[in-house]
């Protein structure tokens, strides 16, 4: 697949199971070939997207001292405002790169219950209260509405994912109904000086979790995805045509049938007109107590290809590491492999430092 396909969800939303299956098959092909697809017909009102983007632009236009008032009091906590130059996403894939040229505002779950799932010691680590900017009227309300809307869209996409993987349509329902998903408002300012060699708006990385939903802008210096052939291609983005990709956890959940793909945000041309770029990225992560197991192993064992099968060990989402075992059928031997990413990044996600970022930043 040489480009990112655009998939219209309208028929799946309004039709029956046959229509949902047709859309699910298109999603399956995109996730197997490139790990990205764009969606239209998703039902999210334009005004809801526009309201958050307008208020986010206004926040990032504030003086730096005012924005810093919206930091979390604990250094490195992934809530609130984070200034530019504090993160290098390539580090999550063990690659060296200069700091990314972006600032961001990080938002966690907006609806928190009062039962033990939320109030236990483990629950409190995932449901850390959000920090909101006092100098930005309407920001909290717009972000909260957007977060809830994306949560609903994720639930629908996970049902399509279940159909694509040929399991019961409701398979994922009880695994994402108390999600620890997060949202980032990523702001890429107009470059004041030329970047140093190797420095990008967002260095190359993969995401950690399930589906990511991106609302971007059609301005110079945007998203690129790497094809299986190793070529970087531009991805068309707009505020209301969302770009969706899968993360490492969903790749493992499907026994590597689906691809968690490398992507980056490049710099605008130095000799052309420059504008700041704002992207809103919603990162779905399952419930922290969900069991991540490769229930599809036997079904897809014969179609994984390339001479080997990956045997995923069942693991609770909140466990910090998972051991993988690779059986190299062609070579006739086996050996252990340790996962390159922590499946349950969310256990420490609110407390991660900038040298090991928890999620992608577009």
Question: What's the SSE blueprint?
Answer:
Blueprint lengths: L5 E3 L1 H5 L2 H17 L2 E5 L5 H15 L3 H5 L11 E3 L20 E5 L8 H4 L1 H6 L12 H26 L8 H4 L5 E7 L13 E4 L5 E5 L7 E4 L5 E3 L7 E5 L1 H6 L9 E3 L11 E7 L7 E2 L4 H4 L7 E5 L2 E2 L6 E6 L4 E6 L24
Parallel strand pairs: 1-2
Antiparallel strand pairs: 2-10, 3-4, 4-5, 5-12, 6-11, 7-10, 7-12, 8-9, 8-11, 13-15, 14-16, 16-17
Task: Describe this structure as you would to a colleague.
Strand 8 and strand 9 (232-234) form a beta hairpin. The two termini are 22 Å apart. Mean pLDDT is 80; it is low at 300-311 and 320-362. The chain is globular, with a radius of gyration of 20 Å. An 8-stranded mixed β-sheet has the order 1-2-10-7-12-5-4-3. It has 2 domains: 6-289 and 346-351, B-lactam Antibiotic, Isopenicillin N Synthase, Chain (Jelly Rolls, Sandwich), CATH 2.60.120.330; 297-338, no CATH class. It is built from 10 helices and 17 strands. It is α+β, with helices and mostly antiparallel strands and 362 residues long. 25% of the residues lie in helices and 21% in strands.
Quick structural summary:
The chain is α+β, with helices and mostly antiparallel strands and 362 residues long.
Highlighted features:
4-stranded antiparallel sheet, disordered C terminus, 8-stranded mixed sheet, 17 strands, 2 domains, alpha+beta, globular, 362 residues, 10 helices, 25% helix
Count the E strands: 17
Order of helices and strands: EHHEHHEEHHHHEEEEEEHEEEHEEEE
Please give the domain count: 2
Hey, roughly how much beta strand do the residues contain? 15-25%
Main sheet properties: 8 strands, mixed
Query: Low-confidence parts, pLDDT < 50 over ≥5 residues?
Result: 300-311, 320-362
CATH architecture of the largest domain: Sandwich
CATH topology-level name of the largest domain? Jelly Rolls
Structural class given helices, strands, pairing? Answer: alpha+beta
Any idea what the shape is? globular
The termini sit apart by: 22 Å
């Amino acid at each position: 697949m040489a480009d990112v396909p655009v998939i219209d969800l309208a028929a799946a939303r309004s039709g029956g199971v046959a229509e949902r299956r047709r859309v699910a098959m298109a999603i399956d092909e995109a996730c197997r070939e490139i790990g990205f697809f764009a969606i239209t017909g998703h039902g999210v009102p334009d005004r809801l997207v526009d309201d958050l983007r307008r208020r986010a632009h206004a926040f990032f236009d504030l003086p730096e001292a005012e924005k810093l008032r919206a930091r979390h009091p604990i250094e490195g906590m992934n809530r609130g405002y984070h200034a530019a130059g504090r993160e290098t996403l390539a580090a999550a894939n063990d690659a060296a790169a200069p700091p990314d040229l972006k600032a961001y505002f990080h938002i966690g779950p907006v609806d928190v219950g009062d039962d033990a799932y939320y109030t236990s010691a483990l629950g409190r680590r995932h449901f850390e209260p959000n920090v909101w900017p006092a100098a930005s009227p309407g920001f909290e309300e717009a972000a909260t509405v957007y977060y809830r809307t994306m949560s609903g869209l994720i639930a629908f996409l996970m049902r399509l994912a279940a159909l694509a993987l040929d399991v019961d349509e409701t398979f994922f329902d009880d695994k994402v109904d108390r999600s620890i998903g997060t949202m980032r408002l990523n702001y890429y300012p107009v470059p004041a000086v030329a970047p140093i060699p190797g420095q990008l708006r967002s260095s190359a990385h993969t995401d950690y979790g399930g589906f990511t939903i991106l609302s971007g802008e059609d301005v110079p210096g945007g998203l690129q995805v790497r094809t299986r052939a190793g070529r970087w291609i531009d991805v068309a983005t707009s505020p209301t045509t969302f770009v969706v990709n899968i993360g490492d956890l969903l790749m493992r959940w499907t026994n590597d049938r689906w691809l968690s793909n490398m992507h980056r945000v490049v710099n605008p041309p130095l000799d052309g007109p420059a504008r700041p770029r704002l992207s809103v990225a919603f990162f779905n992560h399952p419930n922290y107590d969900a069991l991540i197991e490769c229930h599809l192993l036997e079904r897809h064992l014969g179609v994984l290809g390339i001479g080997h099968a990956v045997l995923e060990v069942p693991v609770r989402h909140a466990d910090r590491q998972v051991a993988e075992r690779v059986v190299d059928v062609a070579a006739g031997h086996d050996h252990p492999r340790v996962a390159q990413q922590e499946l349950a990044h969310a256990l420490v996600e609110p407390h991660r430092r900038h040298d090991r970022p928890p999620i992608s930043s577009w």
